[in-house]
Amino acid sequence: MLHPFGDDPEEHDARRRSREMLLEKSSNFTDGEYDEQNDFSARDVKDHRDFVRSIDLVLRPHFSSAELVEDQFYAGSHSPQIRSLVEQHGERLKPALEKIKKSYRIYIETASDAPLEREARRLSRRYFEEEPDANQLNFLKLKRYYEKVRTFNDIARTEWREVSKDIDTLIVINETRQLARKIDQQFIRPLALLIRQTDSFLDEMRMHIRVNNENVDPITRSRKIDIQYNPGIRYNIAAMLGLSDETESNTVTAEAPVEEEDNENRDFEGSLAANIVLETREHKLNRASIISVPILGSRDWNRTPHYRFEVPLVYFEQCVETFKKSYHVNIEEDNIKGPMNAAAAQVLKGQSDDVIVQYQQLITSILDDAAEKILDKDFPGLAKPEVFLYHCGATVLYRITLKYLRAQQLGEMFYLDANQNTSREFPEEIIKKILIDWWKKYFQDVAGENVDSYLTYSRQLEMVKREYRILYEEGVQMRKKEQPGVTYLGVEKWLRDNRNRVFGPRKVEIFRRFISGTVLDEGYYFR
User: Fold this and answer.
1) DSSP string computed for 401-463
2) What is the pLDDT, as a whole number, of residue 395?
């Protein structure tokens, strides 16, 4: 039997102390210092440029990493022995990860501009006798912004430290060492930098807005600051960082400025390989970063998970590496292949950049076709059709794309796994990345006020519901013709079994998006 603790105890303690220090607040760095073990310098910590974006985007890696860490530790593909060890030695993991996600929703999702605007207007009577001007409102917004972000960062540091303790234990157990080390490298260390950057940024904000006193609420444990309005201070983040107001307004919704600037000089159909380099360059200081679609809405109802679509950068890069090593990719209908023996696959493996570009063109053409058919064939005559497609969400288009690929037997890559067995799968992270690029281009001219119009949304929602009712009744009549004399009891099962024929494959996904409790809900059947 393997001894559960394979590392030297002194080495183990040193690594534990190093990881704890990594999550501590940095305050004594000079610009020349560099932490070789943690691979970031004082310049990295004091780089606050990213904070001109909406804070829910800047700190989103905490939420997405918490989900990914939980998924990786508790994946069903692990052996029973590994699952047992994770359950036994990872008792802090789930509570800590859940608290991080819950705190993100409480403090960070409410610290974006629209919720802060509402909160500032409610608070204005306490601070100002007359109707507040723009700078006075910004004063209140920055006050609450600071309190919320500082509170969340305190919680994140504490809970990631708890996660790190369990990871430290799992690293020294032979069976879980590889898994735990991978998670430590991919998530804990990048998040440590983000925590320290956030602390440094908040310290700068504290001086800019001239905080008199700062306390922790004994009941809620949230931060509260004492601050007085000074008309000589410009209360916005861009001014604090020495940037223009225009820069701030532009970068709040800019998810990848480096990539977008480059895209102005090259065609959208350009090399995905070059795109990878740009993504890596932009996110090199934060390996937990995500690539995501921009959220155009500013209301609570149009910033829900339906409007989010993202791929972790590290997963995307891994998928690209697998794609490049594959021995065949089904791109053309007249050149579809299946698995082959390992020897033959070994000879063929290795895809050129041209194949990646062809794959991008395939997915882009499917997305163009799906968007056109949704708006012109499935739901014709819509007012503001692009807004309707935006409300459908990128996840709907992703599912429609996968359906089409499966139906046409296109899009799969074939490769040799670590055991030299032939494997086949969709390069899902590449598909997601192509969809995100397509989405940004398609909706670049859609105005936020149109997305925020609940009147437009409610009319479109009613149209979707009406279409569902019509097709449902047509399906009932279709079943009566095909199975006369059969009772009504089995009609819902029949509709589920024949859903693509009755409703159409694209409409199935759109009905699922907008209407709950129907025969199309995924809970009714197993995929």
Assistant:
1) HHHHHHHHT-S-EEEE-TTS-EEEE--HHHHHHHHHHHHHHHTTT--HHHHH-HHHHHHHHHH
2) 95
Structure tokens at 12: 């183990």
What gap in Å lies between CA 174 and CA 170, rounded to an integer?
8
Which DSSP string do the residues of 370-387 spell out, in sequence order? HHHHIIIIISTT-SSHHH
Q: Which of 436, 311, 309, 442 is nearest to 388 (CA)?
A: 442
CB 256 within 8 A of CB 282: yes
Burial tier of 260 (Cβ tally within 10 Å: 0-12, 13-18, 19+): middle
SS3 string of 8-41? CHHHHHHHHHHHHHHCCCCCCCCCCCEECCCCEE
Residue 33 gets the label, from left (phi > 0), alpha (psi -120 to 50) or beta, of: beta
Asked whether the beta carbons of 382 and 466 are under 8 A apart, the reply is no
Q: What share of the chain is helix, strand, coil (3-state, %, to 5)?
A: 65, 5, 30
Instruction: Give the residue among 410, 422, 271 at the shortest CA–CA distance from 352.
Output: 271
With a cut of 70, list the residues of the chain below it in pLDDT. 1-40, 75-77, 244-289, 334-353, 418, 487-489, 522-527
User: Cα–Cα distance between 323 and 329 in angstroms, integer?
Assistant: 8
